[in-house]
Amino acid sequence: MKKNLIAAGALWAVLSATVALGGCSKKEETQTASRQAQSSTRLYVYNWTYYTPDSILRKFEQEYGVTIVYDTFASNEELYAKLLTGGTGYDLVFPSGDYVSIMIKQGMLEKLDKSKLQNMGNIDPLVLQKATYDPGMDYAVPYYFGAAGIAVNTARVPDYEKSWSIFGRTDLRGKMTMLDDMREVLGDALSYLGYSVNTVNPAEIAAARDVVNNEWKPNLLKFDAEAFGKGFADEDFWVVQGYAEVVYEEISDELKANTVFFIPPEGGPAYIDSMCILKGAKNMDLAYKFIDFIHRPDIYAEFTDYFGFPATANIPARDLKEITPYYTAEELINVELKDDVGENLQLYDDAWLTIRVGG
User: Cα(269)–Cα(348) distance, rounded to whole angstroms?
Assistant: First the structure.
């Protein structure tokens, strides 16, 4: 009898364990399914700071019943370095043209299925002509074509010339900043000297280095790619090289009345920032929907109005805009896209090292 009781007890223990394991298994399956369902309703975006209005992000979330997880970067170098580390989990990224070229060569981007993009006909063919790194939009859809320029506080600096030479003014020493961006700053100096921003001529790059080092840098408070908008808003800086959207996002309405933003007629480096789907993205369908959503004319007009941009990349959006842009599309006539200069980038690295560190 005792043996039977022991055997019965053992059998009960086995049955209990089996039920428990089965319950755990079902629980784990449920949790896994829940995580997968949650993942399929989340779009992971990695974009420039101050580059997509919250109102547009919320409209997309509401329209498609999803959540956007939105991270930001301040430079292409930061974007690229983070992606190289792996494990980011981003679906959609917004590199500039020279980095799109690099990422295509390195197999980092998905080739686009354009049958899933219904609004590509809205994109200005002239912008695609400039997008020589991917004119057929095989990997990248233009988001915005623009250029960095100069913001001036006209209450503090009433007299000025619309030229990169403003950074040579000794009377403004300690009240000016330029971007902490090698290709932008050297590109400005190259344009100022009448050279291409993509030159690989060592003498021309050396001449641009000397303009920055000897004429501009002594008057700068610092090179700054992140806080120039806040510094301008606080009037710590009176003249900054930077992006219109960053400056105007930070400044008060009162300061807006005393702010002029321009792209110097000498030209300078331009950019086409593009929307690209990362290789192996988990939420590819949502990424396609977001790209197409952005190029809906009403959405693109809202985006460019929010930042005071001209609607450079989307033709139908131009008729829907409600505000006058802070700079005009005509100011972009003399700008030049930054190309991937390959191994010749070392010439720029060496020049920039001299500027930033000395030597």
Answer: 14
Q: Answer whether 172's CB lies under 8 Å from 157's CB.
A: yes
Class in CATH terms, 41-146+271-327: alpha beta
- The amino acid present at 331, given as its one-letter code, is E
Report how far residue 8's alpha carbon sits from residue 108's, in angstroms, rounded to the nearest whole number: 61
Instruction: Give the separation between CA 294 and CA 304, rounded to whole angstroms.
Output: 11
Residues β-bridged to residue 190: none
CA torsion sign for 217, 220, 226, 228 is negative
Query: How many Cα atoms sit within 13 Å of 12 on the Cβ side?
Result: 6
Cα three-residue angle 146-275-187, rounded to 5 degrees? 35
Strand partners, 259: 153
pTM of the full structure: 0.78
Q: At how many degrees (to 10) do helices 284-294 and 54-64 cross?
A: 130
Q: Mapping DSSP to helix (H, G, I), strand (E, B) and coil, where does residue 28 land?
A: helix
Q: Is residue 81 a contact partner of residue 55, using CB atoms and an 8 Å limit?
A: no
Determine the straight-line distance between the first and last CA of the chain, rounded to whole angstroms: 95
Q: pLDDT tens digits for 19-50? A: 444 555 555 554 444 444 445 689 999 999 88
- CATH value of 148-269+339-357 in 3.40.50.720, 3.40.50.300, 1.10.10.410, 3.40.190.10: 3.40.190.10
